[in-house]
Each structure stands twice: as structure tokens, then as C-alpha cells.
Design goal:
Elements lengths: L1 H31 L4 H8 L3 H13 L3 E2 L7 E2 L1 H23 L4 H11 L5 H13 L4
Antiparallel strand pairs: 1-2
Subunit structure: Homodimer.
Family: Belongs to the DtxR/MntR family.
Pfam family, one: Fe_dep_repress
Length: 135
């Protein structure tokens, strides 16, 4: 059992950056109409090289498309991943706020938790948010 637990954590970490990037790309496109590398550099406070390496990996994985000096666009697969990540984030943040965590702390904490929460736990959180606490 411990190996399975650790393997899931390793898998979660592997997808965490991709989820953060596609979520940020989707949000930037929604707010600005386009997403450029500099937007991600500023958002994540990383170097252009880091963004370029990550975008190359996201292209390889079929999540984004771009050309040199052109905006970054999400593929349908990237859009699905961004939507799923955003929904998980919103559920976790709302749940934390529902149990009394301040909105500021819930926003920060949900950013990490969202990548590691299981489907079962996420469904339980959503059920409580939708129906209230079990008696």
C-alpha cells in the first residue's frame, strides 16, 4: 500500500505543472484574448527559458499549440484539462472556506491541494457543498 500512495503522489506532481500552465493559459486568454509567453513569465515569476521548456513539453503532450513569436493556444485536450483543473480548484477552495478557512488562505491552500485530491475526496467535498454537512 505505501508504494501505491507514493506512486500516486509522484504522478500528481508530474501533472501539476501542466495543469497549472493550461489553467493559467485559459484564464489569460479569457481575460486578454491571447496568451503569450511573457504572460506566463509574469504569472509564475519564472524565466523565459522555464516557460519555453514547459510550453515545449505541453506541445509534445498535445495540450497547446504555438509558433515562435505567436500566442499560445490550448488544444481541445488542453481546454479539457484546464476546465477540470479549474473545477477542482473551485471545489477545494469553496470547501475550505465552508469549513472556516479565510478566503485568502483558502485561495493559497487550494492551489496545492487541488493537484493531490482524489476523485473520491473531491466528490465528498462537492456533496457537502451541495447538500450540507452529513448528520
Amino acid at each position: 500500500m505505501p508504494e501505491r500512495v507514493h506512486q500516486r503522489t509522484r504522478n500528481d506532481h508530474a501533472s501539476e505543472v501542466a495543469e497549472d500552465y493550461v489553467e493559467s493559459i485559459a484564464e489569460t486568454i479569457a481575460n486578454n484574448g491571447v496568451c503569450r509567453s511573457v504572460d506566463l513569465v509574469n504569472h509564475f515569476a519564472v524565466t523565459h527559458a522555464t516557460v519555453n521548456n514547459t510550453i515545449t513539453r505541453l506541445q509534445r503532450d498535445g495540450l497547446v499549440t504555438t509558433q515562435p513569436y505567436q500566442p499560445i493556444e490550448l488544444t481541445p485536450k488542453g481546454k479539457r484539462l484546464a476546465t477540470a483543473a479549474r473545477k477542482r480548484h473551485e471545489i477545494v477552495q469553496a470547501f475550505l472556506e465552508a469549513i472556516g478557512v479565510s478566503p485568502q488562505t483558502a485561495a493559497i491552500d487550494s492551489e496545492g491541494i487541488e493537484h493531490h485530491v482524489s476523485k473520491e475526496t473531491l466528490q465528498a467535498m462537492k456533496k457537502i457543498l451541495d447538500k450540507g454537512w452529513p448528520s
